[in-house]
């Protein structure tokens, strides 16, 4: 029963105290006054005590049922109905019993039998186990052991005397009711054995009440069979005590703190072991005493006590050790669960607060989770995407409307090949059909224990704004560059004329200023041309005239164009070209890419050093190498050195006069040819630039008369 408000608690406490005081007064009555009173008076007092105790138990269990729920409510209702049935039978028996006769009338025996059946059903409801087969097996074994022990006690104390009795006893009183008493005692012991949780004390009192009631019933059956039963004797205290224990159990408060000490239903405890082996020990004592041959003082009795007692102590120690071990494990599980719960909450907060979209997939590519930002970007609710195939739901088709193959998707690469995709661009489809560009990072989810892939995680970011900014910037640079070229051409031409002496000889100071202005205009022209070239490359409008060209000729032209720069820097250009192959390329653009690579090598080489030019055939392609002995490039800059406006050192742009676009243009030109360019470098040793192009097919030699001299 819940604790309730203070007034209700005080009321329950008053009722409990009243029941205890009534029981004490009744015991005092039997101890001091009963022997001096007539038999009829003692019988009336016993009848009154039974009536009051029975009414109190019936009303208390009915009230407890009102406060309970589920199976507990049914059990308390059955208890209340059993008490009402027993009371009705007692009243009917008292009214129908002939004057001067002992025992109960047949209607009373029937009511007692029905009440016992209801009580057994109630206790069985209390002991219901629905957790596992192990629990059911443990309960069955409990019933077998405890039932056998109770039957041993009943057989020695009751059934032998019933069989030896010469009096005529009804079938109900002499057989059925004692059997039901044995079953009731067994189920009560099982309940006592399995009492756990917040109802521990209350159910223990219920079990104790029925055990007392059962033992009193068995004693009653023996006395009736022997013809010595007298209503109003001390035996009546057993029934009254049983009723009072039931009433006390119904009013016993349930504390919320008891729930935290829940030990579980399955698993032996030291208390459980004590109950089982205690009943076995009592049964053994009764059996030994009933068989004579020395009784309790015989060697056989001693050996039985030693055997059962030793087994009980051993099992108790094991049970205590198992209990401590389980509690430690449960404590560790609670701590780990709390830690995992905290980590889960932190992860949930982290995923919810990230602006980027994040979703996970299983081995089949189905969405297992998605954060709110990702679901919002895709136009779905979080729950709508669970279980959907990510590739089919929001991966956009190509520009022609054809879906991309799922096996070529970065999700498949992460899940099947354990490949990490970083910085890839893709297009996603929102729920309303709108397509938007994203940048993704896909990684596999690997189990640390087994090393197996359990799925993948994809992080994506909407780059619509970034692409728009890039487009506006490129358009701005293109427009500005085109608009600057016309006036810059005029300025450069005018400065060239002045420097050439068209207007006559200039003073030395003026001539120096004109030369510097001319050099600056030429540098600005180169920068504008680089910007325009890069804009054409990125927009895909760079026109190429691809024809076969000899590799040696291309390197020779680039060598001649960069000879002046190399001489001014005291750097020698050395060509080692033994490759007779030709490449398919646009002559001017490849020479432009080579001069960019050679120019960088010359600029960053120390005076007196050598820049080597070489070419070779590699798997049918032509690989051109530009090797210097400069300061080298750190490993963490090799991936970004081909980006726009990027140099190894920011001071290089000011000191060397570069724009930071040369390598970006070089990569764009080479990739437009279907080739690739990369750098290998070691700090303090030098850098080697590799430019790889497709080789041109060899021309078939001429045969026949036309191929010979006349």
Automatic annotation (TrEMBL):
Occurrences of domain Histidine kinase (ranges): 479-697
Primary location: membrane
EC number from the UniProt entry: 2.7.13.3
Domain (PAC): residue spans on this chain: 422-475
PANTHER family documented for this protein: OSMOSENSING HISTIDINE PROTEIN KINASE SLN1 (PTHR43047:SF72), TWO-COMPONENT HISTIDINE PROTEIN KINASE (PTHR43047)
Catalytic activity: ATP + protein L-histidine = ADP + protein N-phospho-L-histidine
Record keywords, A-Z: Kinase, Membrane, Phosphoprotein, Transferase, Transmembrane, Transmembrane helix, Two-component regulatory system
Entry-linked NCBIfam families: sensory_box (TIGR00229)
Ranges where the PAS domain occurs: 343-400
Annotated localization: Cell membrane
Name the record gives this protein: histidine kinase
Transmembrane stretches, start-end: 12-33, 45-63, 75-98, 110-129, 136-159, 171-192, 201-222, 234-252, 273-290
Domain of life: Bacteria
């Amino acid at each position: 029963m819940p604790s309730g408000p203070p007034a209700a608690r005080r009321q329950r406490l008053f009722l409990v105290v009243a029941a205890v005081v009534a029981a004490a007064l009744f015991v005092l009555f039997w101890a001091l006054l009963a022997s001096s009173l007539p038999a009829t008076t003692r019988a009336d007092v016993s009848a009154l005590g039974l009536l009051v105790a029975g009414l109190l138990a019936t009303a208390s269990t009915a009230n407890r049922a009102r406060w309970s729920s589920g199976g507990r409510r049914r059990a308390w209702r059955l208890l209340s109905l059993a008490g009402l049935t027993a009371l009705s039978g007692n009243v009917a028996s008292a009214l129908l019993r002939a004057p001067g006769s002992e025992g109960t009338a047949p209607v009373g025996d029937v009511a007692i039998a029905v009440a016992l059946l209801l009580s057994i059903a109630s206790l069985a409801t209390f002991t219901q186990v629905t957790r596992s087969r192990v629990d059911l097996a443990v309960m069955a074994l409990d019933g077998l052991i405890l039932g056998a022990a109770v039957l041993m006690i009943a057989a020695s104390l009751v059934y032998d005397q019933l069989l030896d009795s010469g009096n005529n006893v009804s079938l109900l009183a002499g057989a059925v009711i004692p059997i039901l008493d044995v079953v009731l005692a067994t189920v009560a012991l099982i309940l006592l054995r399995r009492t756990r949780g917040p109802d521990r004390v209350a159910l223990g009192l219920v079990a104790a009440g029925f055990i007392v009631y059962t033992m009193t019933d068995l004693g009653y059956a023996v006395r009736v069979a022997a013809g010595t039963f007298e209503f109003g004797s001390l035996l009546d205290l057993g029934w009254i005590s049983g009723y009072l224990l039931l009433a006390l159990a119904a009013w016993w408060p349930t504390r919320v703190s008891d729930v935290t000490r829940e030990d579980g239903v399955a698993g032996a405890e030291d208390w459980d072991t004590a109950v089982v082996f205690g009943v076995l020990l009592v049964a053994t004592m009764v059996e030994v005493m009933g068989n004579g041959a020395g009784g309790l003082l015989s060697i056989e009795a001693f050996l039985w006590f030693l055997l059962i007692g030793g087994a009980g102590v051993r099992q108790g120690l094991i049970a205590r050790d198992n209990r401590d071990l389980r509690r430690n494990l449960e404590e560790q599980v609670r701590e780990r669960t709390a830690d995992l719960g905290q980590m889960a909450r932190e992860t949930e907060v982290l995923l919810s607060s990230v602006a980027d979209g994040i979703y996970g997939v299983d081995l089949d590519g189905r969405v297992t989770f998605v954060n709110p930002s990702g679901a919002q970007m895709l136009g779905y609710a979080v729950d709508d995407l669970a279980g959907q195939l990510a590739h089919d739901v929001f991966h956009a088709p190509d520009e022609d409307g054809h879906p991309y193959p799922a096996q070529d998707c970065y999700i498949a690469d992460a899940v099947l090949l354990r490949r990490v995709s970083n910085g890839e661009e893709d297009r996603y489809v929102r729920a309303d059909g709108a397509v938007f560009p994203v940048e993704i990072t896909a990684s596999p989810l690997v189990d640390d224990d087994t090393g197996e892939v359990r799925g993948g995680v994809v992080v994506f970011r909407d780059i619509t704004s970034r692409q728009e900014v890039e487009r506006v910037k490129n358009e701005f640079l293109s427009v500005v560059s085109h608009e600057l070229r016309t006036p810059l051409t005029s300025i450069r031409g005018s400065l060239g004329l002045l420097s050439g002496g068209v207007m006559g000889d200039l003073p030395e100071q003026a001539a120096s200023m004109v030369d510097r202005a001319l050099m600056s205009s030429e540098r600005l022209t180169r920068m504008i041309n680089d910007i325009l070239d890069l804009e054409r490359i990125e927009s895909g409008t760079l026109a190429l005239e691809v024809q076969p060209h000899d590799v040696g000729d291309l390197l020779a032209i680039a060598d001649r164009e960069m000879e002046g720069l190399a001489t001014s820097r005291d750097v020698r250009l050395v060509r080692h070209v033994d490759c007779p192959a030709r490449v398919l390329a646009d002559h001017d653009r490849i020479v432009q890419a080579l001069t960019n690579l050679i120019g960088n090598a010359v600029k960053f080489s120390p005076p007196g050093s050598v820049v080597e030019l070489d070419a070779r055939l590699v798997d049918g392609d032509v690989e051109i190498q530009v090797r210097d002995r400069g300061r080298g490039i750190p490993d963490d800059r090799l991936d970004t050195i081909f980006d726009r406006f990027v140099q190894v050192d920011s001071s290089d742009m000011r000191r060397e006069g570069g724009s930071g676009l040369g390598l970006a243009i070089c990569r764009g030109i080479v990739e437009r040819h279907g080739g690739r360019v990369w750098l290998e470098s070691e700090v303090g040793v030098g850098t080697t630039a590799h430019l790889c192009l497709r080789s041109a097919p060899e021309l078939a030699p001429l045969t026949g008369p036309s191929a010979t001299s006349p």
